[in-house]
Amino acid sequence: MENLALIESFSEFKDDKQIDRVTLMAILEEVFRNALKKKYGSDDNFDIIVNPDKGDLEIWRNRVVVADGEVEDPNEEISLSAARKIEPDFEIGEDVSEEVKLIDLGRRSILALRQNLISKIHEHDNTIIYKQFKDLEGEIYTAEVHHIRHRAVILLDDEGNEIILPKEKQIPSDFFRKGDNVRGIIESVDLKGNKPTIIMSRANPVFLEKLFEQEIPEVFDGLITVKKVVRIPGEKAKVAVDSYDDRIDPVGACVGMKGSRIHGIVRELGNENIDVINYTNNLNLYITRALSPAKVTSIKIDEEKKRAEVILRPEEVSKAIGRGGHNIRLAGQLTGYEIDVLREGAEEDVELSEFSDEIEGWIIEEFHKIGLDTAKSVLEHDINDLVKRTDLEEETIRDVINILKEEFEE
After folding, report:
1. What does this chain do (predicted)?
2. Which of 171, 172, 228, 229 is the most exposed place for a label (fewest CB within 10 A)?
3. Domains and CATH numbers, the chain
């Protein structure tokens, strides 16, 4: 049969892509029907017989015999004399089936056919990959570093599928070399121009949740439930866990003897500090646990405003806030409450927001970021410490301190 190169290409794709026979037949027929439409204006009167196993294909054109000189549509009608050249005993009104050779379509059409075939099979392949990875969204996946770019790491899995790990979805301490195996979750899968774009993340809280499932048997078996995960990638995370079996200590089971069970997870996340706490419906107790390792003296909750006012001894305040304000920020995210920290005996303290007439809002926000919401909480810190922990100039901080001191002068 003509154009064996086309059929051989077909067979190569069949073996390489392992597309099922029915799908391949449908793709090949669609490609040929498009070529027939371009050449003859319609493909309605053509039969295409595909045999992918043998690597062969037949095209038959069906036309009606009409009297000589009465052919109106040469694609659907054939003159009596032309029909009798095919078979001498044809009569007017009979159907004639004539095989169309690939060469009859013309050299350009044959080249276009091959390109279209390759394109359609790639399109099908991409659709399969898209569906496969769409089902894996939110699951842990491992792939190998293939190429390192400034804004992303390009990974390849065992099947050669490309997975992108953007810079902002990496843990800040991540460092990769070509050939390294990398674990993360498949965060999103999109089709862009018929090509699947697969995004991996190691910074997403779901990655930590899935690591708990993978590394802690009781979580995998459903004996312990991960209720919520919040994290600042590479710095600190809080995980609330619960168990419906009173005989199981969920925190102890997750952490293990001397941290043995959680150690592998911490190492995977670049030594991220992970606090595991017992989940409870008792809001006071939940907020208290969320502020661990700080010990809370008392709590006042405003459920309407979703705010909690927490009283602590002075030596516990820095623990509650944590380095860079990480602890209090994560406790707020975990519980869904904005947490204000007050020192014992400092009820006369004043919220920083009360100074908005004298201190610009963006400056107040810088203090909020490190957990300092009141005048006294700022005044109790050393100026050099505040310069290091905020993005504020020393002069700006001195101006703020002078304004706050005036509030408490007799």
Report:
1. Participates in both transcription termination and antitermination.
2. 172
3. 4-131 (3.30.1480), 138-201 (2.40.50.140), 204-279 (3.30.300.20)
